[in-house]
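Hi Y.,

Following your request, here is the sequence exactly as I used it, all 308 residues.
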Amino acid sequence: MVSLEELEKFEEILKNGKITPETVGALRELRKVKTQRKGQIHKDKRRDSAEVRKRAEEILENFIDSYIINVLNEEREDIVNDVIGEKGTEVRTLFHTRVVNELEFTGRGIFSTQNCVDSIKRLQKRAEKEPEISEILKYYEAALYMNERYTVKIWTYMRFIEKDPDVDYASLGENQFWWGSSGEINDSENLEILEQAVKDKKIPKKIKERLAGLIEVRKLGREKLEAIETKLATSVAAKLAELIEKEPDITEKDAFDKLFRVEGIDEDNIRELIRLAVKNLTKQGERDSDLCRSLVKLYGKVSTRRLV
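Below is the corresponding structure, written out as tokens. Let me know if you'd prefer a different format.
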């Protein structure tokens, strides 16, 4: 049985909360103390062994507390990046499982997810009196809060537009989180929610700064997108008007083929162009014009009837 004096040596080795070959050896020795069966201990040493067990448990707890403090301190806002928006996964489970996996090579059975849960609880208790611990915990707690307060699709949207601030509405609409609804509507709604998050006092300053920057570049991206869409919409309407003027008896099918049957453009993109043109004319107050009505006809299933 390991003595109390030997445990003090292990404690000294484990003080920094980092994994080294030396700490791995100490942790494995502590595990032996923790798992040793009572029946293997001589009766006259049971009192001593209970004290040793208790002290070994304290040292293991102190080590995992120190280890988690190091992880939280080193990663800070990266913890939020790693855990927000994980569909169907609690932040605490994701983080704790990761920590246990990192500790796994010290020996199976030394630490579990529950050890991590208990450690965070101890740290949260310490944070009430120790400001430095409170500071270290804030990103972990922010990640918990952000996953509970805001839906998964908000953070998916954030990552989506962070990767491509100029992404078009059609691509947003194709994303699995908004399938079946308008990419433009979801873009506006989610951007508005991110603007609310920037004002949320429970979200760390650095994360809010990141969100604010992202919102700014997305708005610029939207402006570029809208300028491109307006140009395309105007062009489509102008070409159709020109075609109708030249061929007033043209059928829906012929008009569609002459305007849009261009190699490499699929039907969905054609429909999107027509939708943009109708939207642009509506904004200009021409919703009831022959030109707008003609575009609406071309959006549907075209026939051999006269377009106008």
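The two ends are 97 Å apart (CA to CA).

Thanks again,
Q.
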